[in-house]
Design brief:
It is built from 4 helices and 11 strands; from the N terminus they run αββββββαβββααββ. With 211 residues, it is mainly beta.
Length: 211
């Protein structure tokens, strides 16, 4: 139980003779989602979490066989169609998405322990309209999945301003392309000869003949 050292109450319940677990979902949308796989309302972390039993499903959190991270999906069903515009306005990529594992007391009303199980970012937001009701499916990805994506960086002022507004390190880079470079020439007097160093990049060696 080393992974639950920071949640001793939850660890004790898991090792006990009975367990009443739940999985909670938080999505940081313009209208934040606080939901858990149960009934009624549960209050913790300063928020009221709404039970979604029978109206929502949460996918499996796991990894591929090679250890790479995979996405997690959650679906909310039976949404009245009049809320379609409000639901569509919530589609904001990159929002914080968290899954929390917890357990309840025997009356299913009191939180005994909890632990944040997974944390990622919202990547996809799908709305399915059946004509009489809506269903919304979100897909979130762990930051670990970025390991499979190439990191594209450009040494331009526009890219630098997005990363560090106000920084001017690349402001004059485009102008430098047109700046002429004057290479030094060896002495041209009659007592010296100059021979290129052989690299063709403007570096010269000078040999002098003394008579």
């Amino acid at each position: 139980m080393s992974r639950l050292d920071d949640a001793p109450e939850l660890a004790a319940e898991i090792e006990g003779p009975s367990l009443r677990p739940f999985l909670a979902l938080h999505v940081d949308l313009p209208d934040p989602v606080y939901a858990f796989t149960g009934k009624g309302t549960l209050t913790f972390e300063g928020h009221d979490w709404t039970g979604i039993e029978g109206v929502a499903t949460i996918g499996t959190i796991g990894e591929d066989t090679d250890g790479t991270a995979t996405g997690v999906t959650a679906t909310l069903n039976r949404i009245p169609t009049e809320f379609r515009d409000d639901v569509a306005d919530q589609a904001v990529r990159g929002g914080l998405t968290e899954f929390i594992l917890g357990c309840l007391s025997g009356d299913y009303k009191t939180l005994i322990g909890r632990r944040r199980l997974w944390k990622g970012r919202l990547q996809q937001y799908d709305i399915n309209d059946s004509g009489t009701e809506l269903s919304v499916t979100i897909t979130a990805e762990s930051r670990a999945i970025d390991q499979r994506r190439p990191a594209i960086k450009r040494f331009t002022d526009e890219y630098q301003q997005r990363k560090y507004p106000g920084d001017k390190v690349f402001e004059y880079v485009p102008r430098m392309v047109e700046v002429p470079i004057l290479w030094a020439n060896a002495s041209q007097d009659a007592t010296s000869t100059s021979t290129p160093a052989g690299n063709g990049r403007g570096r010269y060696s000078v040999q002098r003949d003394y008579q």
